[in-house]
Amino acid sequence: MLIFKKRQISDEKYEACAVFDVNGDGIPDIVSGAYWYEGPDYSKKHFICDILAIHEYHDDFSDYPLDVDGDGRLDIITGGWWGETLRWRRNPGAANTAWETFDIDKCGSIETIRFFDIDNCGVPEIFPNTPGAPQAFYKLIRDADGKGTGEFLKVVIGDEASGHGMGFVDMTGNGRTDVVLCSGWLEQPEDPFQGPWTFHPEFQLGSASVPILGHDVNGDGLMDLIVGQAHDYGLHWLEQGWAADGSRTWTKHDIDLSGSQFHDLWLVDLDGDGELELITGKRYRAHNDGDPGAHDPIGIYYYKIDGGRFEKHVIDYGAAGEASGAGIYFWVQDLTGNGYPDIVAPGKDGLYLFENLGYGVE
């Protein structure tokens, strides 16, 4: 079993984070909410800007790095539920200068945001999960030199409200990545900007995680789905198959029913064996104690997939204040250079770093 060294970076209660080089010194830094923490030791804290706080939340459910204005510095893409607005924050390049925030679009309440290069241009597009609005994505407009202009093109790909949950999966095996929602999936056309994106209402995933993951779990050549319940108990995988009449089928299998609020999931090779592990955990107080299992212990886990057997390993587990949850958007990246990906976990319980020591000893 892998060994992780846990360290609290901050007691700030933001629920999203990211890792990127903020100040251009070649060393990755940690960004979470209103602050960034300077690498390599993350003990020096820098102010970004004030963030709206409401009902024990902060209106900041993404801190993704993207050079929006083409100045060579990575900015932040963000948005939240109450502001109902997709935004970007401009990196000023000076450590003691507040970051200016710009609106991209008043798109509706944002559950969280994910990013995927849907047109293979080399720059990811922005996909906010807006449960009450049709699914859309935003493309950064770049100039002739390939630099960001600060402007975005909005492309609406759905007709109905998208619901809670979203992921990027090549469902058909045709080489084009489709968009999975909680009640079906949107099939990418040959030109993702022209459409139409055909909706296939093939399942009901409940309060699905963001992301919903695509992975051939049982090795049969068909893409399966891995989904957590973001506001209920349960972590599952859906096996893709075919009925006698040629229709696609989905068979639900349990992974872990012992926990609730599995809001964010990652597939990463944590131990260097060439196989992907599933990493997830509880989003602590996702609905401010209003979800099933809200008062249960919190934790972070990884699962060896093993053809669908999903062997669970505990990274952290215990009562709130002793153990950490995973937040709405945690981050996985090798910060120490030892070849093993580390985990940065934000949340209402604070910001934590889990240093992956591999199979060695502390």
Quick overview:
This protein is 0% helix and 46% strand.
Structure commentary:
- This protein is mainly β and 362 residues long.
- The protein has a 4-stranded antiparallel beta sheet, with no helix packed on it. A 4-stranded antiparallel beta sheet has the order 2-3-4-5, with no helix packed on it.
- Strand 29 and strand 30 form a beta hairpin.
- InterPro entries: FG-GAP (IPR013517), Integrin_alpha_N (IPR028994).
- Keywords: Signal.
- This is FG-GAP repeat domain-containing protein.
Sum up the structure in keywords:
362 residues; mainly beta; four-stranded antiparallel sheet; 0% helix; 46% strand
First-last Cα distance:
13 Å
Low-pLDDT regions? none
Report helical residue fraction: under 10%
Task: Describe the strand arrangement of the main beta sheet, using strand numbers.
Answer: 1-30-29-28
Number of beta strands? 30
Sequence of secondary-structure elements: EEEEEEEEEEEEEEEEEEEEEEEEEEEEEE
Give the percentage of residues in beta strands. over 45%
Largest sheet: 4 strands, antiparallel
Average pLDDT for all residues: 97
Radius of gyration, in Å, reads 20 Å
| Structural class label | mainly beta
